[in-house]
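Lab notebook, page 48
Experiment: co-folding of the full assembly
Goal: obtain a model of how the components sit together before planning crosslinking
Operator: M.T.
Materials (sequences as entered):
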Amino acid sequence: MGLNKIDANTLYDILEAGFFNLSIHHKLINDLNVFPVPDGDTGTNMRITYKYGMDAIKDKTSVSNMLNELASGMLLGARGNSGVLLSQYFRGIADGLKDKATIRVSDLVSALEKGYQTSYSACEDPKEGTILTVQREGIENIKSQINDKTDFDMLFALVVEEMRKSLDNTPNLLPILKESGVIDSGGKGLLTIFEGYLKSIKGENIESSLLSEDIDGNSSMPKSNIDYSLFNEKSNLDYGYCTEFLLQLLSSKINIKTFNIDDFISFLKDHGNSIVCFQSGTIVKVHIHTKKPYQVIEYAQQFGEFITFKMENMALQHNNVLAKENERKKERKKVAIVTICQGEGIMSLFKELGADVVLNGGTTMNTSTAEMVDAFKQANADTIILLPNESNILLAAKQAKELYKDSEIRLIETKNIPQGYSALSMLMLSDNPDEVYNSLLEGASSVLSGFVAQSSRESTIQGKISTKGSYIEGIDDKLISFKENRKDAVIDLLSHISDIKDKQVLFLIKSKNVPDTEAEEVVSIINEKYPNLEVGLIDGKQDIYDYYLGVDK
Amino acid sequence: MRKVKVILDSTCDLTPELLEKYDIDYCEMGVSIKDKEYPASLYWDKISPKEYYDFMRNNKNERVLTIQVREKTYETKFNKYLDEDKDIIYISCSSALSGSINTGRSVAKRLMEERKGYKIVCVDSLTSGMNQGFLGIAASELSSKGKSVDEIAKYVEENKLKMNQWATVGDLKYLAKAGRVKASAAFFGNLFGVKPIIISDAKGNNFAYKKVKGRDNSLVEIADSVKNNIVDPENNFVAVCHADCLEDAEHLKELIEARVKCKGVMIMPLGPILGASCGPETVSAFHFGKEVTLVGE
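Observation: model returned without errors.
Model output:
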């Protein structure tokens, strides 16, 4: 008979194993992205979401508290649709295990059901063939096989097996997956997490040498703009250093089996505060605020060597928080606009058009709920209108809207940059939130958007095979055609827009890869071909999409 | 009682025929292109509207500057009609757009001191274009009915805010460069296909109070605004002024006629001064209507 009761300690190990496994495989999951445009980031998004959850765990003694903290952390850190659906899933699981000190198999079965139900209810239009299906089938299809004799080893084995089957079937449910010859990336992420759980239950170590160097996920998070002048020649070290590292225990240095994490922790306690320290296999993770980091480093190095290391002056962080707070205390506005975009040109344009806070979504536009909430704080207004400009963060945006209570948040579901531009270009500034909202909404809904981007791999578009490196043409989020040459792709894309000859306005937003001369040439070709169109060219300087375009509807 | 001469200035946009028909004179402003000055003539005798707006189209980086009425011009014009034994009502371009009226007032004051008994009343129209023109026409009609200069001035004061203007432009760059339209900076950013609707507000400023997508929609918006705001249409003309875009002006005329039965819709060129600030392809409807109360921030 295997494990039939899980206590808080065991649960933490299991949850962590899931995170490790996801961290090892997240790049693989990224590659499953359906769009042959290299902005795939499902794996990264899920990992960052999960990491927020793990970091939020403070109480490691109670199952229900731990899961609650995990779920709240995930909710806040959720990135991308898969991240949001993962966070909702764990929210449901945590609710299902409320008040439990330990978990029995039957508890977890009903919690997993509650998990997928919560996920489904978060979507207005739940799509099958996605992470949702894998969440649901993973438990629904095996429920009947569970009985009194089922232990956790068997339960997790069944769930993992069923999730795998469900995942393999996703291309049959979602045509776009089949066309691209891939399985659903969000579902794959979920399976990867559960595979980690199963390994932990079976007592298998997750090959820690495979852990990618950026285990903290920090490298994928946008760097906040720290004002270095905040710590200057007149400053004192009041707060010490926030020190974080992953230590690989080395058998060349010590007998790893006799390594005592509690001794390690008590040393840390004498040398600083805000300590988070735990061991997973032969890796020790440490987070400490200390004024004398060299003592901690020297001590830790007796046992092994560092895999990652990060140190920041807390005074800077603290001052930065103060600076932010001061900014927040500025006069509260009646209406403010928060928007997300990418590319230096687009960012400054959106500011110029009247957006109060312009968040940099990064190349993959995977802004988290937490970042949006921060932006709301910064915007500091009675009513805040949010333009996400990316379909993949609409759920995270909805979640941010739900979570934030200090302002009335209104969401205009702009799905791409051209929609965002069109919305802002119609903005009428006013203290009346309805007027501002309506002007933006009118702008957002009056544009047809398209793009041209270089394909990162071979794919099938409308029955034809496009090679890697060709230029893909899209209208809204549909792939229309492709061309070997970028200029041809733009011109060809226009010919796919019905009644283009009756349209009045076209704007093009070019990436930093596109030379001015090329863009100007494209404009003059369009001018000649469609004299009815008033063509505007914007130097957006975005990364991945070579051209965005918008045409009046 | 003395006869009253109605004098306007270059922003009134009356055609030579209307100037003659209503016996109205105007004080000339000027434009300056590449440091060379030209009179802002409503007779278009040195340069045709087409040539003028083509110049702006082909020299997008060249700003056409406007020059207010000079002291000497006022002196000459005012003296001319005082010599004819007439009182004068000068209805000026909005003081929010041009400083001319200040010069006009000081010249008027000086001349009245020199010629005791004569009256020159300067009225700030708080508007421009054909609305200023319409006020001039009304003043001239009152004058031919034998009204005194004070009675005419009272009428103009009481009715000037009932003049409605609905304008849109071809390219926002001209407005941005000239800086004579009030609007948030956001209005003049990189806006493609977005057309402002510009009114003359209650303080005499041109104010971009609304954005519309696309040229066609902006013309429809103007026609709708005319319909919703015109007063006593059967007895009032609507003027459609255009900066060398006759087709659009005719289209707007049709749109207006389809919506409201007014005394007539007249089409005429947008004068050189307004044209300098708004650029080619500007179209504007002017008419007598509901009192304007909106004030642009």
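Interpretation: The longest helix of chain B spans residues 100-114.
Next step: discuss with group before ordering constructs.
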